[in-house]
What we know:
The complex is a heterodimer.
Chain A: E1 4-7, E2 10-13, E3 19-25, E4 31-38, E5 42-49, E6 56-57, E7 64-68, E8 74-78, E9 87-94, E10 105-106, E11 110-114
Parallel strand pairs in A: 2-11
Antiparallel strand pairs in A: 1-3, 3-8, 4-5, 4-9, 5-6, 7-8, 9-10, 9-11
Chain B: E1 3-6, E2 11-14, E3 19-26, E4 32-38, E5 45-51, E6 56-59, E7 62-67, E8 72-77, E9 86-93, E10 101-103, E11 107-112
Parallel strand pairs in B: 2-11
Antiparallel strand pairs in B: 1-3, 3-8, 4-5, 4-9, 6-7, 7-8, 9-10, 9-11
Amino acid sequence: NAGVTQTPKFQVLKTGQSMTLQCAQDMNHNSMYWYRQDPGMGLRLIYYSASEGTTDKGEVPNGYNVSRLNKREFSLRLESAAPSQTSVYFCASSETPGQGVYGYTFGSGTRLTVV
Amino acid sequence: SQKIEQNSEALNIQEGKTATLTCNYTNYSPAYLQWYRQDPGRGPVFLLLIRENEKEKRKERLKVTFDTTLKQSLFHITASQPADSATYLCALDRSGGYNKLIFGAGTRLAVHP
């Protein structure tokens, strides 16, 4: 099925370990996003990529890096995981702003626990 | 700072009734507002979008209103069904053109048979 695919679905890390969350979309969308969702706080934007080759910080970028590998793939890296990064991470994509306004398509999420 | 408020308490209603969810925002004038549905363990699913110059938008049993004076959107589900039980999120564009959405924490709706 067309959509946004995230891997892995679950991950447990020890404090200080690193990992990369993978995201791929097959809808030919230009824009991609990484959010984290914590109880009672709503989704918060970590990083986004308006188009291939560009990335920019969202509201909570500290402790994360991203790579827009090509038009399909947008990865999120935790260099040195901390317990405060325990969360559910969602990747999303959308059509290019300016050509209309579109809703996001979200992946099913990665549930990350840092111990 | 920009802030979106949704009722944190769950809304419990009887099947067949109309569910009304509220989204209030401060310190911002968004060009449009979106509503999403999220089921447990799943990612949000886009439902509806309404622009600042639109008072009301409908899609099947769903209706959204947008009052830029009150800084409020109302989301209605008519003839509600147990399958409508989920958390509903509202989201605003925060960047005036780059489609960077800021989300509310959501309101959980439970429709009882």
